Amino acid sequence: MAFKRVVVTGLGAITPIGNTVEEFWHGLSNGVSGAAIITKFDASKFRTKFACEVKNFDVTQFIPRQDARKMDLFTQYAMVAADEAVKDSGLDLEQINKNKAGVIWGSGIGGLKTFEEEVINFASGDGTPKFNPFFIPKMIADSASGQISIKYGFRGPNYITVSACASTNNAIIDAFNYIRLGRVQVCISGGSEAAITQAGIGGFNGLRAMSERNDDPATGSRPYDKDRDGFVLGDGGAALILEEYEHAIARGAKIYCEIVGGGMSSDAYHITAPHPEGFGAFLSMQDALEDANMKPEEVDYINTHGTSTPLGDPQEIKAIEQLFGEHTYQMSISSTKSMTGHLLGAAGAVESVAAVLAIQHQMVPPTINLFNIDETIDPRIDLTPNVAKSKKIDVVLSNCFGFGGHNATLIFKKI
């Protein structure tokens, strides 16, 4: 059978560097750091005292208070991002076939804040089991996709993917496949995360995975820099409206770009460490290119996973060099996590929006805080240090890799 074409017709974002798509792009293109001292709780006794928080977020501006109190913060982010994307798409919700409209979301953890609060409340009491009646529906990760589908009445596929930091790329790949197989015509896809909590910071500190650059948070996330010391945790979310091409054309939709490929693989190596030769990353990118029927030389820009960890950054570059060969030195590479921090399961959504905007604006967002490139990285590679760069961009590849060895890659193409 012939696959149907899949296009992006709407975007939404709530991020540490902007609470709308427009604000997000302004932050990206100007190299703004979203990192600062944590305000959500007193982090003074933690090894890491800073993060990339969403700022100036008042949920009641978007969701009635009585409804918001039934949602964890990660679901609130999902609802806000999805709302912006739906409005941006111009979808006529009275005209589309809602039986052919789905919601496929991603989150690595889900309602961590809700879980933490309920456990603390129970542990600090007299042992009598008193739990919020909304505890379970607020905590479970699929509440985000469920709430979105309820709001818009979308009765097609509705679920959430959980594959650590690859979650959202997996979600978008699933949505892409449902549409190109003709199973649905429209899908809201994306991801959200709200893990900046005592348990979230404490847990990643226990793994020694996060930067401890407390004296200068703004430069804490520094992918590919020789002095990087771990990732910076971020929160927020983003949404994309994916649509079957002919359906979008028939309604006169604005089309940002086309999704042409998705690749997935497993490191099958270690629960937290990447494969030392970047083999899983190589397979994921190779699979995406094969799916898109593209040659490596057609890629103009790679939005890397680039978390700012000592192990992860060079392994991804090694995989890129192995797959792209000499073309590695012709294309642009950057990590937008240098600005947003690492949004865990929502990273792929935010970075997909960044990829789409890079095509729209013909500009590569920078890798900020890149002061001294890791000596293991070939200096010929264009890591887009510190300043955004205008460039002809037809094809963007976006990587996400997660604990457990999960790898997922997306390819976006100018239309």
From TrEMBL:
Its EC number is 2.3.1.179. This is 3-oxoacyl-[acyl-carrier-protein] synthase 2. It comes from the Bacteria. It comes from Emticicia agri. Signal peptide: none annotated. Residues 3-414 form the Ketosynthase family 3 (KS3) domain. NCBIfam families: fabF, PRK07314.1. Involved in the type II fatty acid elongation cycle. Catalyzes the elongation of a wide range of acyl-ACP by the addition of two carbons from malonyl-ACP to an acyl acceptor. Can efficiently catalyze the conversion of palmitoleoyl-ACP (cis-hexadec-9-enoyl-ACP) to cis-vaccenoyl-ACP (cis-octadec-11-enoyl-ACP), an essential step in the thermal regulation of fatty acid composition. It catalyses: (9Z)-hexadecenoyl-[ACP] + malonyl-[ACP] + H(+) = 3-oxo-(11Z)-octadecenoyl-[ACP] + holo-[ACP] + CO2; a fatty acyl-[ACP] + malonyl-[ACP] + H(+) = a 3-oxoacyl-[ACP] + holo-[ACP] + CO2. Keywords: Acyltransferase, Fatty acid biosynthesis, Fatty acid metabolism, Lipid biosynthesis, Lipid metabolism, Transferase. One of its GO terms (cellular component) is cytosol. InterPro entries: 3-oxoacyl-ACP_synth-2, Beta-ketoacyl_synthase, Ketoacyl_synth_AS, Ketoacyl_synth_C, Ketoacyl_synth_N, PKS_Beta-ketoAc_synthase_dom, Thiolase-like. Belongs to the thiolase-like superfamily. Beta-ketoacyl-ACP synthases family.
